[in-house]
Amino acid sequence: MEKKKNLLIALLLIWVAPSFAAKVDTLLIKSPSMNKEVQVVVVTPDAASGKKSVACPTIYLLHGYGGNAKTWIGVKPDLPQIADEKGIIFVCPDGKNSWYWDSPKDPSYRYETFVSSELVKYIDGHYKTIADRKGRAITGLSMGGHGAMWNAIRHKDTFGAGGSTSGGVDIRPFPLNWDMSKQLGEFAYNKKVWDEHTVINQIDKIENGDLAIIIDCGEADFFLNVNKDLHNRLLARKINHDFITRPGGHNGKYWNNSIDYQILFFDKFFKK
Prior knowledge:
Elements: H1 2-16, E1 23-31, E2 36-44, E3 58-62, H2 71-75, H3 79-86, E4 89-93, H4 111-126, E5 136-140, H5 143-154, E6 161-165, H6 180-184, H7 191-196, E7 212-218, H8 224-236, E8 242-246, H9 252-270
Parallel strand pairs: 3-4, 3-5, 5-6, 6-7, 7-8
Antiparallel strand pairs: 1-2, 2-4
């Protein structure tokens, strides 16, 4: 009798326990513009797979300097569970240390074209996506925060929402850092190019309502002031956006928490 009781309890636990079947693919996707393959991690919810699959929205997650396609799955190990809970596809490309520009100096770095065009076309062609700007958002951490806002603003026909967590949204105060001079040339001799390739100078390309925008940064982050500057510029242009500062620095602990709020923001956008 006791054995039957224990078996029944075990079966009930299995029945009520949530079942997460999200799939994590590590792909090599050809970039025609760069004539090379780029590693991309794709997290697909169970809802977007199988015979009864439904089209799901997509969030593109960009890593920071020194990172790779697997950065985000490391920062947020429960991303597959979130994918299943929310019915969202997550796409994490390897952007090298490109800052996600089409470099005016190095033609082998065309990561804006890859992220905003080639990658989106591949994902929409191979996964059950909502193939419309209303079903696409892009965000990232640090360098990837800059890259996400850069691509969202310049390709608002592709992305309906853009975000940045701890983003380097104005690169000019940091002219000697993070290999940016390899992509843009030395700041001292290429100030016009640097002015043209910083996110904070791109916001004149959007009007209020063009993009759903969320920006956050930790109070102990060295990028805090440039994020506050971006926030103030958006306010001056009367562009609605969410802006959050909270305790924390420029590290994985901060991003593990902050991405939850960005996903909630994008999920709300998708459900409008």
